[in-house]
Design brief:
alpha+beta; globular; RES domain-containing protein; four-stranded mixed β-sheet
Length: 235
């Protein structure tokens, strides 16, 4: 993540000094961190809580609510969720995509979480509603559930991914209080290649490749853009 940002800003300036000024200007334009968050918390952990929700909200967050920290509990589900949102990113562009493929760098990191105020939505009684909780196009039930959990003081919860083909688990935090660490336990640089039909990930220094086709995420041959009111894109 940070490597990608530095490369992006360097492309607009001629010197490292100008880059430092540009990054400082960009930083001042971003929302402030909540005062209740510890200064020692690493920015990769607190940044998800910094920004307002997307215009469609998120799976467990409404548009008027603070954002959540979402993560996968395995490498495979993390990449599957990331692949879906790479397609969302590409299909959200206005006009024609700038290139036949987009190559980007990303940081995959791990962090622990623990709380006495948590819920496992993959367990009873919630497991009786698995189909609704994993619905690929309808967020109204999960967003209402997210509001109820937030108001009840839930700090973190686990749930089954809606994007993984298998029963893979994700986790979400309403607050950084549930983190067991002030910084990521590990970090790894990954390359991503994005085309209209496929997302491919490869860790730096590794020969193993993870690929996801657009059709894996389709619903009735349409790509399910997360905005409930937005038209869906034909696959």
């Amino acid at each position: 993540m940070e490597n990608q940002e530095q490369v992006a800003t360097l492309g607009y300036v001629d010197t490292l000094e100008e880059q430092a000024v540009l990054e400082e200007l960009l930083e001042t334009s971003k929302p402030d961190y909540p005062d209740t968050y510890p200064n020692t918390l690493h920015y990769l952990l607190k940044t998800p809580f910094r920004y307002p929700p997307l215009h469609w909200g998120s799976r467990f967050g409404r548009i008027h609510e603070p954002s959540l920290f979402y993560g996968g509990k395995s490498l495979e589900v993390t990449l599957a969720e990331s692949a879906f949102y790479r397609f969302v990113f590409l299909r959200s562009m206005e006009g024609t995509a700038p290139a036949a493929k987009l190559n980007t760098e990303h940081t995959l990191f791990t962090v622990g979480y623990k709380t006495d105020k948590g819920i496992q939505l993959q367990q009873p009684p919630f497991s009786a509603f698995t189909a609704a909780l994993r619905h690929r196009t309808e967020y109204s039930l999960t967003q209402a559930l997210g509001t109820n959990m937030r108001e009840a003081g839930v700090e973190a919860f686990e749930y089954l991914s809606a994007r993984s083909a298998r029963d893979e688990l994700c986790a979400a935090l309403f607050t950084p209080i549930a983190f067991t660490d002030q910084a990521p336990q590990s970090r790894e640089n990954w390359f991503c290649e994005l085309t209209q039909e496929q997302v491919t990930f490869k860790a730096m220094g590794s020969q193993q490749v993870f690929s996801f086709c657009l059709e894996e995420f389709s619903v009735n041959r349409l790509f399910p853009m997360p905005a409930p009111s937005a038209p869906r894109n034909p696959v």
